[in-house]
Amino acid sequence: EVQLVESGGGLVRAGGSLRLSCAVSGVTFDEYVIGWFRQAPGKEREGVSCISNRGRRTHYADTVTGRFTISIDNAKNTVYLQLNGLKPEDTAVYYCAVAEVGNSAWYVTRGPALSTQADYHTWGPGTQVTVSS
User: What gap in Å lies between CA 111 and CA 88, rounded to an integer?
Assistant: First the structure.
């Protein structure tokens, strides 16, 4: 059974930093993509960033490019999301999710990346990030 568990959320002032972790277990398929998404109160869930397990190719939403960095430690089965330069509008519950794909590098760089949330079939419970002004 595939499971994902997020950690690292918290309360931080604007301009501060946090590092979120996504512990992944039970994955048996060769290629997959881990995505980070977020949902603020009253808003739709949106994609933040994703990374391929092969080649470590990355993709970022325009709203976080230059501030957030995604990375993967395959030995630890953990994906990290470093959040720098946080803004109050980054306040949300952050989720990680996994998509089983045929070519993970293509999916991230030329394929849907974050745009097809239905491809992400297993989700973690989420971690709250709150940024005060």
Answer: 31
